[in-house]
Amino acid sequence: MTEKTKKALKLPEAGQWPDRITPTVLVAGAVLSTIGFLLAFLWASPVNGAAVNGVEMIGGQMVTSVLLLSQKIFYFHMPVAITSFIALAFAGYYAVRFLMTKNRRFDTCSKIAMEIALLFVACTMITGDLWTRFEWGVWWTWDPRLTTYLILMLIIIAYFILRNAIDEPERRATYGAVLSIIALIDVPICFMVTRLIPSSIHPVVVREGGMSADMGITLMFCLVGIMLIGFALYRFRFRQVRLTERVEALKEQLED
């Protein structure tokens, strides 16, 4: 039996308690998110500070304030952005663990977390572009928050391109871990840029007067729901990868 086979066979068995509760977590996340979105459309107030007052020049175009659905997009946009940051935090954590131990299981955990992060980063960019179109009248402007988040998405895409370009497993995992850590470093920059650069036109809801009770309750339903969905997707994907590796290991064992 090869060393790779031994390591693969040491992976935890399917059916651990996180796997057993994952379907329940997914359903709970879907229910909470649905309740949150219903509250957003039927109950919650518009987001404070989200609208442009009067007519302003943004991105070289004359823009008037049209709320339409923009204040409702916020209740999906912010939770998916926060969930993407959490996924990147786990990816960076497991990347550091891999670099310290060279345990391939940590590389697998980091890679799956990066996959989940890419999904939620894409959702954040799409909803952000929709919000930008409704609020500012343009699909894109080089606002500091938008620019730093675009850089974050490009780093994540580069991570997967790099992994697919390297055949040697140890080197692939090492380079991937480094990029995971770089992506994690960009997270606090994305979060703090609108607070550090006053010229940013991206709204900071909490700083600009906070949220009313109905907004806060609605946001919490959406946030908890989206985070639970993210956790469930991670566990489903982790179980799939783990079972695939076990099947490959058993095939190698039979061939030996």
From TrEMBL:
Q: Which InterPro entries match?
A: Cyt_c_assembly, Cyt_c_biogenesis_CcmC, Cyt_c_biogenesis_CcsA/CcmC
Give UniProt keywords alphabetically: Cytochrome c-type biogenesis, Membrane, Transmembrane, Transmembrane helix
Q: What is its main location?
A: membrane
Coiled-coil stretches noted in the UniProt entry, renumbered to this chain: none
Name the residues that span the membrane. 21-44, 73-96, 116-134, 146-162, 174-197, 217-236
Task: Provide the Cytochrome c assembly protein domain boundaries.
Answer: 30-202
Q: Name one GO molecular function term.
A: heme transmembrane transporter activity
Taxonomic superkingdom = Bacteria
Per the record, its GO cellular-component terms are:
plasma membrane
One Gene Ontology term from the biological process aspect of the record: cytochrome complex assembly
This one is known as Heme exporter protein C
